[in-house]
Structure formats: C-alpha cells, structure tokens
Automatic annotation (TrEMBL):
<keyword id="KW-0808">Transferase</keyword>
<comment type="similarity">
    <text>Belongs to the thymidine kinase family.</text>
</comment>
<feature type="binding site">
    <location>
        <begin position="21"/>
        <end position="28"/>
    </location>
    <ligand>
        <name>ATP</name>
    </ligand>
</feature>
<comment type="subunit">
    <text>Homotetramer.</text>
</comment>
<dbReference type="GO" id="GO:0004797">
    <property type="term" value="F:thymidine kinase activity"/>
</dbReference>
<feature type="binding site">
    <location>
        <position position="178"/>
    </location>
    <ligand>
        <name>substrate</name>
    </ligand>
</feature>
<keyword id="KW-0418">Kinase</keyword>
<dbReference type="InterPro" id="IPR001267">
    <property type="entry name" value="Thymidine_kinase"/>
</dbReference>
<dbReference type="GO" id="GO:0071897">
    <property type="term" value="P:DNA biosynthetic process"/>
</dbReference>
<dbReference type="GO" id="GO:0005524">
    <property type="term" value="F:ATP binding"/>
</dbReference>
<keyword id="KW-0963">Cytoplasm</keyword>
<feature type="binding site">
    <location>
        <begin position="93"/>
        <end position="96"/>
    </location>
    <ligand>
        <name>ATP</name>
    </ligand>
</feature>
<feature type="active site" description="Proton acceptor">
    <location>
        <position position="94"/>
    </location>
</feature>
<keyword id="KW-0547">Nucleotide-binding</keyword>
<protein>
    <recommendedName>
        <fullName>Thymidine kinase</fullName>
        <ecNumber>2.7.1.21</ecNumber>
    </recommendedName>
</protein>
<dbReference type="InterPro" id="IPR027417">
    <property type="entry name" value="P-loop_NTPase"/>
</dbReference>
<keyword id="KW-0237">DNA synthesis</keyword>
C-alpha cells in the first residue's frame, strides 16, 4: 500500500502511486476513493484525464460503478504541470493513453512535493505492457495492482480480452467490446482465435491456387 503520513516531517517531498490492472478491475474506483479522501482533508486536488476519453462524460472521471469526480481533460501530458501549479495532490486517470512525457511530468510533480496518483491499464488487449505504464510503475513509490473477476472461470482476471476483430491499439469500450479474463481463459481464447484465423487463411489459399490445365 501507500503511506499518507511521512516519518520525517522536516523533509518535504512528494511521491507517485500507481493503480493498475485490467478492464473492470476497479482502478478508477480506487483512484476516486483516494482523491475524495484528499478533498475531505481540504487538500488542493486537481484531476486530469486524456481528452480522448469521453465514454461517460467529457469533464468527469467516472468509474464503471458510476462514481465520479470532476477532472480536466488534456490533449497531452505537457499540459498538466501548468494546470497543477500549487496543488497538494494530482490525480491522473487512463494514463496508458498519454504520451511518454507523462513519466517525466509525474516525476517532476513528485520532486516538487506533490502526491501524484495515477491509474491505468498495465496491459493492452494483446497482453503487452501498455504505453508509459511500465515506466510509471518502475519509478513509483507505491504500486497497487487490482484485479477483475474472470467472466468465464470466476478466478481473478488480469487480462483485457477484446471481443471484436478491431486491431487498433486504442479502442475505447465497455462490456460490449471487452471482458476480463484469467491467464488460462485468455490463453485459450487467443489460441482459438489463432486456430480460427489459420483455418480461414488455409481455405483462402486453396481457393486462390490456379487449377492445372490439361495439355
């Protein structure tokens, strides 16, 4: 977990907290919880999200459970430092959608004495580390990995399986586009896709082969 009270009160410093996991794991829910606690403590809080994320609301950070907190949409990470001037706490949602500059921005804010709380997907739909998240997790003081429940096995889920054939890395969606899967369920689903595509390609190859003509 993370510490909200430091031991050495003479040393003024900030830190970075990263909340990561799959789709439907409660990342944004936990982000909102921590930020609202800071607001209740009358700390100056600013929240940011990528401008492309308009699934629920243009200005609010909204969890799947409909909890929300007002935020400032920004097109790039470089916009955050100016808007965060004078803050005690900075929250950043959907960090995987930001450019790599977000890593330097978060570290600069923490070095100025600001508590930075970041939430984002740690892996994309292919199971690969997503955008700047690995570097954020590496430089953060505290990393919390949350899990969803696998829709097929009931076990803990850490993969975000995309249910359609769209190959774009960034695809905003909900339960119609994604489902959380455990490692075993994800592996089986990807294997079925691979076999299905192989069969389709083999049929196409047979159909396009020229027929032998009689001499």
């Amino acid at each position: 977990m993370f510490l909200e009270n430091t031991v050495n009160h003479k040393e003024q410093f900030g830190w970075i907290e990263v909340i990561c996991g799959s789709m439907f794991s409660g990342k944004t829910e936990e982000l909102i919880r921590r930020l609202k606690r800071a607001q209740f403590a009358r700390q100056k809080v600013e929240i940011f999200k990528p401008a492309i994320d308009v699934r629920y609301d243009e200005d609010m950070v909204v969890s799947h459970d409909a909890n929300e907190i007002r935020s400032t949409p920004v097109p790039a990470a470089a916009n955050i430092p100016i808007l965060a001037d004078g803050c005690d706490v900075v929250g950043i949602d959907e960090a995987q959608f930001f450019d790599d500059e977000i890593v330097r921005v978060c570290n600069d804010l923490a070095n100025k004495g600001i508590r930075v709380i970041v939430a984002g997907l740690d892996m994309d739909f292919k199971g690969n580390p997503f955008g700047p998240m690995p570097n954020l997790m590496a430089t953060a003081e505290y990393v919390t990995k949350v899990h969803a429940v696998c829709t097929r096995t009931g076990n803990l889920a850490q993969y975000s399986y995309r249910k359609n054939q769209n190959e774009n890395l960034v695809l905003l969606g909900e339960v119609n586009e994604y489902e959380p899967l455990s490692r075993a369920a994800y592996y089986k689903a990807m294997l079925r896709e691979k076999v299905k595509n192989m069969k389709v390609n083999e049929v196409e190859e047979v159909n396009t082969k020229p027929k032998n003509s009689d001499a």
